[in-house]
Structure formats: C-alpha cells, structure tokens
Specification:
about 160 residues, 6 helices, elongated
Length: about 160
C-alpha cells in the first residue's frame, strides 16, 4: 500500500509525548500519528467525542446539583442555628462573663476536635442527614461514580 510522505511541524512538548507513547506502545511514531489522524477524521469520531463530552457534562451537572443541595442545607442549618442561638441565649451577668468565655473556649475546642475527627472519617454530615431523611435518594458515592466514569471512558 502506497503512503504519502508529509513533513510536519509540531510543538516540542507534543514531539516528546509522541516519542514516549510510541516507545511505550512499541510502534513507530508514524503509526501513532496515522491512528490519531484516522480517529480524528473518522465520521463517527466526532459522535464518540460528543458522547464522551455529553457524559462528562452530565456527570458535572450531577456533581453541581449535589454541591448546590449541600450548600443549601448548610445555609439553612447555619440560619436555623443563629436564630435558635439568638432567641435562646440569655445575657450573662457581668460577674459571670469570664467564666462564660472560658466555657465558650472549651466548647469551641471540643467542637474543633469533633470536626477534625468527622473530617478524618471521610464522611459528610450533610450526606448523613440526607441518608436519614431519604435514604433512597442518596446518590452513588463519589469514588464509585469516578470508577464508573473511568470504566465508561475506557470502554
């Protein structure tokens, strides 16, 4: 089969990457370029790229929706706590203010310790709340979703 000879210019970084890929696959650089060009010019190549992009956009949309939902939960939680705190807290008499500050510092230190433990566990309190409220509507865990995405892109 007759092939056309082309002299092309590419960026030095692309040349390095091409060299590494050809060596890794144990094929010639021409073979790598020919396969890439065939894929790029293939009529179904555009459809495949569009499908992959659509799938990624759908995944990003779901992630954004979860972030938005979690943010709304956090905002409502904070607002509810502030309202509760302001309506329930009674003024501290002048003579007891230093003791109240000391107790506040101790409570805050305990809060930070609990927060650190919770974060180290890798679980989200917001997700736990959603699981308690509506266990059937909790989305797939992020790690599992990423593995599914990697599997789908490889296929």
């Amino acid at each position: 089969m007759k092939r056309a000879r082309l002299n092309i210019f590419i960026e030095p970084e692309h040349a390095k990457r091409l060299e590494r890929l050809a060596a890794h696959k144990d094929v010639s650089k021409s073979a790598v370029i020919a396969a890439a060009l065939a894929s790029f010019l293939s009529p179904d190549g555009a459809d495949q790229r569009e499908a992959a992009i659509t799938k990624r956009l759908d995944r990003l949309s779901r992630q954004f929706e979860r972030l938005e939902r979690d943010q709304n939960v956090l905002i409502e939680t904070l607002a509810l706590y502030v309202r509760y705190f302001l309506t329930v807290s009674i003024p501290v008499p002048e003579g007891q203010q230093e003791a109240a500050r000391a107790q506040g510092r101790a409570r805050f230190a305990q809060f930070i310790e609990q927060l650190g433990r919770h974060i180290q566990r890798g679980r989200s309190l917001v997700r736990e709340v959603h699981e308690d409220i509506a266990p059937e509507s909790v989305p797939v865990q992020a790690g599992q979703e990423d593995r599914e995405e990697a599997h789908d892109t490889a296929a």
